[in-house]
Amino acid sequence: MKIYLKRTNQAVRFEATNERGHTVNVEGSKDIGGEDSAPSPTELLLMSQAGCTAIDVVELLRKMRQPLEHLEIETEGFRAQDQVPKIFTHIHLHYKLYGKVNPEKAEKAISMSIEKYCTVSKMIDQVAKLTHSFEVIIPDTPESL
Q1: CATH number of the domain enclosing 72
Q2: Domain count of the chain?
Q3: Whole-angstrom distance, CA of residue 74 vs CA of residue 85
Q4: Which one, of 52, 30, 46, lies nearest residue 38 by Cα?
Q5: Which residue segment(s) compose the domain that 126 sits in?
Q6: Same domain for 23 and 45
Q7: Is the pLDDT of residue 52 over 80?
Q8: 7 and 61 share a domain?
């Protein structure tokens, strides 16, 4: 796996491209010259965490024959403020599962993802505490999604 990163302005904005040609912008904070036009590297890490576990949960619930219609994850990271670098010390993921999903199977799928399958989770849990919560939301109509 390779990533190519190039600077795209005279400050701290960059474009990262993978081997398949997909690009993501990344930028430093305003206090060091950022223009607030792209996520920071640490925000991208949280996005990677959410994306990794979302893929697992969708696939695991499919294998469990659960009628998942939609998934949203709210991820909140807490960083050490008294050290440099300000590493994540705790990350909480809140899953919103839409559909008539059995709550026990939802918990099992989420736990399996975080504890066993998600590569990003397994790397992060070496330095930060990972916690999660979830809710199953049964939509009134398909249009409510």
Answers
A1: 3.30.300.20
A2: 2
A3: 24
A4: 30
A5: 41-144
A6: no
A7: yes
A8: no
Residues in contact with 55: Cβ distance below 8 Å, sequence separation at least 6, in sequence order: none
Q: How far apart are CA 109 and CA 106, in angstroms?
A: 5
Which tens digit of pLDDT belongs to each residue from 87-103? 999 999 999 999 999 99
User: What is the percent of the chain where pLDDT is above 70?
Assistant: 97
- Residue from 42, 37, 45, 43 nearest 12 by CA: 37
Pick the residue with more confidence: 74 or 145?
Answer: 74
CB neighbour list of residue 7: distance below 8 Å, 6 or more residues apart: 13, 14
Identify whether residues 15 and 50 lie together within a single domain: no
Please answer whether residues 51 and 28 qualify as being in contact, where contact means their C-beta atoms are separated by less than 8 angstroms: no
Give the residue among 64, 122, 114, 115 at the shortest CA–CA distance from 94: 114
Beta strands 129-137; 88-98: pairing state: parallel
The answer to whether 13 and 7 have CB atoms below 8 angstroms apart is yes
Mean pLDDT over residues 2-11, rounded? 95
The answer to whether 42 and 77 are in contact (CB under 8 A) is yes
Same domain, 59 and 104: yes
